[in-house]
Amino acid sequence: EAQVTQNPRYLITVTGKKLTVTCSQNMNHEYMSWYRQDPGLGLRQIYYSMNVEVTDKGDVPEGYKVSRKEKRNFPLILESPSPNQTSLYFCASSSPFPGQGAYEQYFGPGTRLTVT
Amino acid sequence: AQSVTQLDSQVPVFEEAPVELRCNYSSSVSVYLFWYVQYPNQGLQLLLKYLSGSTLVKGINGFEAEFNKSQTSFHLRKPSVHISDTAEYFCAVSDRVGGTSYGKLTFGQGTILTVHP
C-alpha cells in the first residue's frame, strides 16, 4: 500500500530536549515536505526537499532542521524545542511525473507534538 | 512569493444545498492549484488539482473548481452537499517555474464547512 508514515504519532516533551520525528514514504517520490498546522493558520511549510541531499527552507524554518540522505526518508529535527513549536506536524511526498499523480501531495497521518 | 487567501473561515450550509468555498491567490509566475480536504482527526486528502488545460477541474466526491487567471481565483463548488462533506478545506498553490514545480507549496488558512441536516 502506498503510504507516508510518521513516528511518533504523539509526543510530549520538555523545552530544550532534542527530538526527531521520522518520515518515510514507499512511493519513490522525489519531493518531500514538512508542514505544521496551527488553528486559523492553515498548514505552513517548514522545509522541503526536491531529492536526496537537496533541501530548502519553507515559510517557517526557524528552530527546525532536516536531512535527506535517502530518497524514502526525511526526518524533522528539533534541536532545542520550545513551547511555540507545539503543533500538529505533517510530512508529505509528491512526484512531478504524471504516472505518479503529478504534484499531488500524499500526507502522513500527522504527529501531535506538545512542548512544555 | 506566493500567497493564498481563503475568504471564509467558516461556511455553514444545509444538506442538499449548493456550496462555494472561495480561494484567491497571488503569484508573480504561473501556478499549480490544489484543493485538499481534512476530515476530523485525519490527514489531508487531495480533492482536485489544476496543472494546465481546461480551467474547470472535476475532483472526487462531486466537487469541482474553476481556475480564473484574470481574477487569480480557484473557487471550489459542489451543487448538493451531504452531511459527510463536513470537514476543513484547504486551497494551496505552487509556483510553476520553467515548467516544473520546485516543491514549495503554500496553503490558505482553511475553510470549515459544516453541513446541517
> Helix content range of the residues of chain B, please?
under 10%
Radius of gyration of chain A: 14 Å
Helix and strand element order of chain B: EEEEEEEEEEEE
- Proportion in β-strands of chain A: over 45%
SS class of chain A: mainly beta
Record field, number of beta strands of chain B: 12
Give the % helix of chain A. Answer: under 10%
Which pair has the most extensive contact?
A-B, 28 and 26 residues
Rg of Cα set of chain B: 14 Å
Weakly predicted, low-confidence segments of chain B:
none
Q: Biggest sheet of chain A: strands, sense, closure? A: 7 strands, mixed
The rounded distance between the terminal residues' Cα atoms of chain A is: 36 Å
Number of strands of chain A: 11
* Beginning-to-end CA distance, first to last residue of chain B: 41 Å
Which blocks of ≥5 consecutive residues of chain A have pLDDT under 50? Answer: none
Q: Which outline of chain B best applies? A: globular
pLDDT averaged over residues of chain B: 91
Give the overall shape of chain A.
Answer: globular
What would you call the structural class of chain B? Answer: mainly beta
Structure notes:
The complex is a heterodimer of chains A (116) and B (117). Chain A is mostly beta strands. Chain A has strands spanning 4-7, 10-13, 19-25, 31-38, 42-51, 54-57, 65-66, 76-78, 87-94, 106-107, 111-115. In chain A, 0% of the residues lie in helices and 49% in strands. In chain A, strands 2, 4, 5, 6, 9, 10 and 11 form a seven-stranded mixed β-sheet that branches. In chain A, strand 4 (31-38) and strand 5 (42-51) form a beta hairpin. The model of chain A has no long low-confidence stretch (mean pLDDT 93). Chain B has no helices and twelve strands. Helices cover 0% and strands 60% of the residues of chain B. In chain B, a hairpin with a 5-residue loop joins strand 7 (56-58) and strand 8 (64-68). With 117 residues, chain B is mainly beta. In chain B, the strands form three sheets. In chain B, strands 2, 5, 6, 10, 11 and 12 form a six-stranded mixed β-sheet that branches. In chain B, strands 3-9-8-7 form a four-stranded antiparallel β-sheet, with no helix packed on it.
